């Protein structure tokens, strides 16, 4: 499970870095994770709200549907603690499907993907910083 969580979080961080890049926020200034040189701390902050709906649901779906098997998709020589190429391919495909899944946004009243929702959280953060508007991160109930 740790290998799946780590791999999924890495993919989510990468997607979040890309989304933040389009908002022109400074990636190294964060409010939850300690900023460090050469670390995109803001990506870590914004992705926290999306881990349960994207990473964890992807993992649960793959495991519960038996699409991922320890003996088949993990490296034996590393005590099954790393995904092999086949496992990575399966996980990435499921992750991409999940992050591009669309839902009706309650305020925008239109379909958006989770990928877009990440970028919208960046814009909400800008409004908080510039216009002092309340920042409410993405909530699972927003999907409903």
Low-confidence stretches: none
Radius of gyration over alpha carbons? 16 Å
Distance between the termini: 28 Å
Main beta sheet strand tally, sense and closure? 2 strands, antiparallel
Query: Proportion of β residues?
Result: 5-15%
Q: Can you tell me the overall shape?
A: globular
Portion of residues within helices? 55-70%
Topology diagram in text:
Layout: H1 2-23, H2 41-47, H3 51-64, H4 70-73, H5 85-99, E1 102-105, E2 110-113, H6 114-131
Antiparallel strand pairs: 1-2
Helix pairs in contact: 1-2, 1-3, 1-5, 1-6, 3-5
Main attributes of the structure:
globular, 2 strands, mainly alpha, 144 residues, two-stranded antiparallel ribbon
Structure description:
The protein is mainly alpha-helical. It contains six helices and two strands. The protein has helices at residues 2-23, 41-47, 51-64, 70-73, 85-99, 114-131; strands at 102-105, 110-113. A two-stranded antiparallel ribbon has the order 1-2. Helix 1 packs antiparallel against helix 3 and helix 3 packs across helix 5. The two termini are 28 Å apart.
């Amino acid at each position: 499970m740790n290998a799946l969580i780590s791999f999924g979080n890495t993919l989510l961080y990468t997607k979040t870095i890309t989304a933040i890049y389009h908002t022109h926020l400074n990636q190294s200034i964060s409010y939850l994770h300690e900023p460090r040189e050469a670390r995109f701390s803001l990506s870590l902050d914004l992705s926290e709200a999306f881990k349960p709906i994207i990473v964890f649901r992807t993992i649960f779906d793959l495991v519960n549907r038996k699409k991922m098997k320890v003996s088949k998709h993990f490296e034996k020589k590393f005590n099954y603690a790393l995904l092999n190429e086949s496992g990575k391919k399966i996980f990435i495909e499921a992750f991409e499907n999940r992050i591009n899944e669309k839902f009706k946004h309650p305020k925008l009243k239109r379909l958006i993907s989770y990928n877009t929702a990440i970028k919208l959280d960046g814009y909400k953060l800008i409004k908080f910083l510039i216009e002092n508007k309340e920042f409410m991160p993405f909530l699972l109930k927003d999907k409903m």
